[in-house]
Amino acid sequence: MTTCKCDNCDWTGDESDLRCTTAETPHLKLRIDAGATVPAGECPACGCLAYLIDEGTGTYTVMLLRPDYVTGGDLETFLTSAKADTPQKAVDAARLEAMTADNVEEGNAIDYAVLLVIAGEHDDLTYLIDNEGVK
Fold first, then answer.
1. How far is CA 74 from CA 7, 69, 116, 131, in A?
2. Mind listing the pLDDT tens digit for each residue in 1-50?
3. Using alpha carbons only, how large is the chain's radius of gyration in Å?
4. Are 92 and 109 within 8 A, CB to CB?
5. What DSSP character marks residue 89?
6. 16 has which bridge partners?
7. Which domains does the chain have, with CATH numbers?
8. How buried is 91 (Cβ within 10 angstroms: 0-12 exposed, 13-18 middle, 19+ buried)?
9. CB 101 within 8 Å of CB 34
10. Distance from C-alpha of 88 to C-alpha of 34, rounded to nearest angstrom
11. Max alpha carbon distance in the chain (Å)?
12. CA–CA separation, 80 vs 48, rounded Å?
């Protein structure tokens, strides 16, 4: 059981009881700030965002490939670190951060392809990238 808590009404319950998951949450990018903790989903009681109680247990480094509509067809990556309890939630946070950095309002977060997810904080991955994109 993964326990979540609503940020608004103080509902507490299992993650499986949420109204919808992070990936299904409508207008998520508009509801959280870049770099903020990614919620587990929507509260079943009031519809506000609910978070894992034991959130932020790990740091992950995520490298994404920016979509063609952002880069004009060039291969460009986005590298960031995210605190999350699972690698998938770190990827979700990284995608939202990349969309905000790229000023993408109408795109789809899954357009940012995942190239790499590593546990821990790694800012020394520039050797994986050269002027032509990812090696």
1. 40, 10, 19, 10
2. 578 899 899 899 988 899 988 778 888 878 887 667 788 889 999 999 99
3. 16
4. yes
5. H
6. none
7. 1-54 (no CATH), 56-135 (3.10.20.10)
8. buried
9. yes
10. 17
11. 50
12. 27
